[in-house]
Amino acid sequence: MLRNVSLQVPAGSTLAVLGRNGAGKSTLLRILATLLRPHAGEVLVFGEALPRRGFAVRGRLGLLAHDPLLYRDLSGRENLSYHARLHGVGPERVQEVLDVVGMRERADEPVRLLSRGLVQRLAVCRTVLHAPSLLLLDEPLANLDPAATELVGPLIGRDCGATRVLTSHDPQAALAEADIVLGLEDGRTAFVTSPDNVDPVAVKRLYA
Amino acid sequence: MTTYGRGLRGLSLAAAATITVALSLVFFYAPLDADQGFIQKIFYIHVPLAITALCGFVFGGVLGAIYLRTGERKWDIRSYVAIHMALIFGVGTLLTGTIWAKASWGHWWVWSDPTLTSFLIVMLLFATYQPLRFSIEDPERQSRYASVFAVVAGAFVPLNFIAVRAAQQYVHPRVLTLTGGNLPGSMRLTFLVSLIGIALLYVTLWKYEMAAKSTRMQVRALRRALLGEDSVTPLKRSAAPS
Amino acid sequence: MKTVLTVLRKDLLLELRGFETLPAMVLFAIVTFVIFHFGLNQDTIDGQLAAGVLTVTLLFAAMLGINRLFVAEREQGGFDAFLLAPVDRSALLVAKATALFLFLVVLEVIAVPAFGLLLLGPSLGHALPGLIAVLALGDVALAVIGTLVSAIAVQTRARDLIGPIIGLPLLLPALIGMARGAGPLLAAHGSSSPPGRWVAILALYDVVFALLSYAVFDFLLED
Questions:
Q1: Nearest beta carbon to residue A69 from set C17, C77, C222
Q2: Interface touch C222/B163, C-beta < 8 Å
Q3: What number is the average pLDDT over the span C81-98?
Q4: Is A82 within 8 Å of C78 when comparing Cβ atoms?
Q5: Model confidence band, residue C138 (pLDDT cutoffs 50, 70, 90)
Q6: How would DSSP label each residue in chain C?
Q7: What is the predicted pLDDT for the residue at B180?
Q8: Whole-angstrom Cα distance, residue C179 to residue C173?
Q9: Closest CA to C194 of C49, C29, C51, C61
Q10: What are the angstrom distances between the C-alpha of A30 and each of A24, A180, A189, B236?
């Protein structure tokens, strides 16, 4: 349940959302992804009002959440091809992203045989397949070792070019990447500032 | 918020009056049937109940469609009450139907009758409405899914009757044929009055229930506004939209 | 249209990989024929009785498929994946219904000859085209209603139960149509074309419910 969360995120910048489990971070991301309908208030993504204009923005955003959204009996390549077709993207792009994350050799194994780290890499591929301008990243680096983290950098990292909304269990890491910081506590805004003005005490309280 | 209570007294009186008139006609005016005797008079209750129940189901479907269109909660409540009332009238139809069946044909249930069979199928379908609602916890989704069901099931009613009628020879006395009815004058009058009475009863009960629900919601909203969030006990999970 | 093919291809691929649902449906049908043999205590059956047995068996085998139709979506995030794509959402209904229809066709290709072998008295030869027509129309009904009901059921708590109890009454007119349409075809000196009335009713049912389901399906997918 989210209440009275109000802010604006300029294009190309990164919003970090901090808060405990259950504070509402995932809910916020799902509303922005057009998967949840807000009961009141205004949500504008790319200037389009949700939920009414959801169909206009869907193709331009990518969601990376706890569920990788991959079918376990299909291979990574088959999964990505499915998503590519749904988004009207060609097969070369599938190969391209697989190469970037270093999954070329194991792309044809069923997903259920892959470790969580590899599944997460595939999930990142899925998210950026259609080159979205808005990335909604719910703990994107979960299960990734440092090598993998580096590999996914160009796709979802600070310099990827897209506007990003990201959440993280590690507030310091999130703050390092953010242009704006939103703190959520029990579904309400605790604070909205730039990373330089963040009060460490307030952050500690959020996670207390 | 619409007040359903307005006009309720007038409506109740009208319904009560019409039914009283209908009953007196049934007992004193309508002729005694040569073959079936007195028990035939149950027809004046049974058929109007059946017609009202079926119309109620279709009405519920229409209200559900409006909910899907507009997203306003009140239409879902109206749809729920319509279907729920129609179910009650439907049970009444089945009960009066079996009594009549036993009395005039000697069996409690007759498969060879398409009308009875169709009606049973419709009732079996709508009996799933409340379990369906109950099994969905999220209220908005509950309303949405229930409305989808109401629309599909409402469309099903006429189709079902066509199919079953085609399937069987009929034993059920056909009183309302396409030529407008083969009832003699006195029976026709009694039937009509009875039909109007039962239809009025349905509408009255619908309004009553809507008024009760609407009032309850308004009281809760007022309490919440005046006394704060905690004064209102949260509603248990239920099949009814609140 | 492209979306429908994409989803359909994915579903067929999944079934090929998993290969659980279709074999279960076929096995179930054949076992049911055996049960009927013992239950009815007859070596062969024909006419309306045979049509009834065939219809009921196909229906219950179909229920197995219907219950599983959206399970992968629900459990592996397939709904979200689809909802995030800039596609027409009713395409999911068409794709799933087509997949179910194809499963039913494969089921019948195996089960009907098995039925002819195990239970049916008269030979199937002359009745086959008519029977195919009746079963095809019936399959459309099963596919459309099955998909609709499965989509409703997968989001409720009593998942496996809600599907059949809503679906079976809804399917009754179509089932009556299938059984009554096939009855004369399976009789000892039966006709080779199904009674027109029943074909008409089945067709009417299919058209009405296909259109209706298409119209309401969107509402089931929103969150």
A1: C77
A2: no
A3: 89
A4: no
A5: very high
A6: -HHHHHHHHHHHHHHHHH--HHHHHHHHHHHHHHHHHHHHT-S-B-HHHHHHHHHHHHHHHHHHHHHHTTHHHHHTTHHHHHHTSSS-THHHHHHHHHHHHHHHHHHHHHHHHHHHHHTBSS-SGGGHHHHHHHHHHHHHHHHHHHHHHHHHHTTSTTHHHHHHHHHHHHHHHHHHHHHHHHTGGGSTT--SS--HHHHHHHHHHHHHHHHHHHHHHHHHH--
A7: 41
A8: 10
A9: C51
A10: 10, 19, 17, 27
Rounded to whole angstroms, the Cα distance separating C10 from C7 reads 5
Phi/psi for A197 (5° steps) reads -95, 10
3-class secondary-structure state, position B176:
coil
- Give the pLDDT confidence of C55-75 residue by residue, as tens digits: 999 999 999 889 888 888 888
Q: Is the dihedral of CA B30, B35, B39, B40 positive or negative?
A: negative
Q: Which residues on C lie below 8 Å from A88 (Cβ)?
A: 86
Domain ranges of chain B: 8-223
CA dihedral sign, ordered A45, A48, A52, A53: negative
Backbone φ and ψ for A71, nearest 5 degrees, come out as -80, 125
Q: What is the domain range of residue C180?
A: 2-221
Q: Which among C108, C98, C20 has a CA at the least distance from the CA of C62?
A: C108
Contact C166 B128 (CB under 8 A): yes
Q: Does residue B58 have a pLDDT over 60?
A: yes
The span from the CA of C160 to the CA of C165, in Å, is 9
Identify the CA nearest to B81 among candidates B230, B207, B234. B207
For chain A, the domains span 14-70+132-206
The total domain count for chain C is 1
User: Can you identify the CATH homologous superfamily of domain A14-70+132-206?
Assistant: P-loop containing nucleotide triphosphate hydrolases (3.40.50.300)
User: By CA distance, what is B157's nearest residue in C?
Assistant: C170
